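Section 5.1 Outputs to date
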Amino acid sequence: MSKIVIIGCGIVGAAIAYELSLISGLDITVIEKNTPASGSTGAALGVLMGVISHKQKGRAWRFRATSLKRYETLIPELEAKTRLSIPVNRQGIVKLLFEGENLEKWYKLQAFRASEGWELEIGDRNYATQKCPHIVNDQIIGAVYSPQDRQINPVKLTEALVAAATANGVKFHFGIMVKDFITQAANDNELSSCQQLETNAGKIEVEQLIISAGLGSTPLTQSLQQTIPIRPVLGQAIKFKLDKPLGNANFQPVVTGNDIHIVPLGNQEYWLGATVEFPNERGEGVADAQILEQLKQEAINLCPQLKNATILKTWSGKRPRPDGISAPIINKLSGYDNVLLATAHYRNGVLLAPATALEVISLID
């Protein structure tokens, strides 16, 4: 059996483990220094902005389309196998359009999506009001509605992926830290090969290594003398509750506009997010309460009903953004014949997890 070791159990690592577990003849081990979804995954809103994104070619669009299609089969597949419930909002995404918006690019995108079987609706201000009666702002000129985009609870999804992969024979080890790698030169070329991992719980043999550790990927690649620079970009969000649903109680899509996301969670609860806060010159990222307050006020300017919301909690998390490299990083680590990177998805880890897993499978020798 081929021994495959995955480092990292966020949504991407868990998705890779599950998809690999569907292939017979593999011995798969996942190691994670914390608990599942404890890093960037746990700080994600889970909004799948695929069809409504402006990506139209290359890997950027191919991955989005692949993931959206896989999610339609993956969620019921996981729920049937694990008996776990994975909260999914299937009512789509409404993107608000403001004064100065280039409407022509939206109509071109609509035509392109339609040519590939995807649906986008575009309407004027009255259309926006019809879709989202709770949004009241004079600068809104219309809206785009994407009924095939989704929002998923990333933590519950990761837990289901772990449970399903475990049922398929994958071994998960949590609280395990990698201390070093044992490598040797490959026989037939100048590449090296990773043979073992040294961890705080002993050595683990490896024939294929997949690094999917988000921000933890940088120190791991440093240990392999091939540093991949990944920087933390902090994001903050607010969870709040209202005494009645926003807008139409029977139509609760994600609403987005001016980088503000209002995400329905059910039971009159919503996420409001998310800020984008880059680290300072020393590489430090500290949650700025003033920026979060600004997000809240801008959201109230869009949706006055939020003024009466009860804040249940606020949180912040760090997303892994590659420095000088396009996100995500999915390729073989330079200098090695059996080390793959599947990391640094920045703000699209949940969206691109299924496509990343399938891409990794295609890259494994």
